[in-house]
């Protein structure tokens, strides 16, 4: 089979996906919403409804980038796209039915209709995704040849990724080492042309500016896909965005999904729903019990209030169940292992993370989120901001009760700079890769960790 035969159909996948999804939303609409009314309403009304939901689906898919799914796209990101598109489509259908009364369609059937479409489209989208992975891994089809220019730790890791994951459809042919002039660009270019390489990956740290310019010209002139591997050791998860201001190209260093108004609405809705459930069904009966236990052991308030930095560096009062004897150092020094300030009840509360539950009121008030970077004491925030690179990036979003860093082994006391650097690394990854499904995964992992117990939960 020729390489064109193996890879040529890829360009048809997106149009086919459009056609199938439009067929689903229209067929389900007719048989679920309109079939029993077809004899009662004007045929033009059905055509108008079909035209509007089809147009709306296409416009929303462009906005949500619903069909921008590639061989390297993660399943969690695909599911996030489906959820986002379905919510937008539900709101769009609600709005249209409210304006177009001739159809006499009520909200409950519309919700059921959207959920059924969501289910069918999800099945189709994941079926295509996994069938293509199976096809690449088992039959070697739909693949792309790759070369890597530059040899270092990162390029070795990329080569291992290509070789260890055949389901993504990359066949790595060669990695060139430019140290000590072991390879030349002319040799690389000849190899790329002779082997019909599809994608070129360049390590910026291994190439000079003139070499990069030559590679760019070669790729442009020979229709090769060119991608760059960042050279900074401090770069954590840069998702660079390329934009134009008039005719001036601008490269955005960091994209934040939660700057999107739709994502902000979804996350805030999740926060309100989740925090309300915890407050009504857990804190409503647990708080009096905890309050009695705290009061029986020591004098002082039931709740502990502490100023912390949140979104945009704004200070807010963070609430917890009091787990220590009242002391003036509580706002200055973190709790350490076997800290004498911790009460017996407090030790249990901290071990099980129950002391954090009052922060769901902070979530409901809008100062915090269920998931996000953990807020630090104001004094510690000032200190880390001066000594830890990129620490302030954490304040681009609301702080959370739990976070990716906490479920990845970086909760509790900061014993060394390594701890806070690791925490910042995971926090930045979370900020740049947020999705509702990621939030749910972190919540579940937090619950499991609380049950199992953690070494740094003291």
TrEMBL record:
Keyword field contains rRNA-binding: no
Keywords tagged on the record: Membrane, Transferase, Transmembrane, Transmembrane helix
Gene Ontology MF terms in the entry: undecaprenyl-phosphate glucose phosphotransferase activity
Pfam families listed in its UniProt record: Bac_transf
Domain of life: Bacteria
EC number of the protein: 2.7.8.31
Membrane topology label: Multi-pass membrane protein
Parts of the chain that traverse the membrane: 12-33, 45-66, 78-101, 113-132, 272-294
Residues of the Bacterial sugar transferase domain: 267-451
InterPro entries registered for this protein in UniProt: Bact_transf, EPS_sugar_tfrase, Undecaprenyl-P_gluc_Ptfrase
Entry keyword annotation includes Transferase: yes
GO cellular component: membrane
Record's subcellular location: Membrane
Entry's family note: Belongs to the bacterial sugar transferase family.
Protein name: Undecaprenyl-phosphate glucose phosphotransferase
Organism: Winogradskyella flava
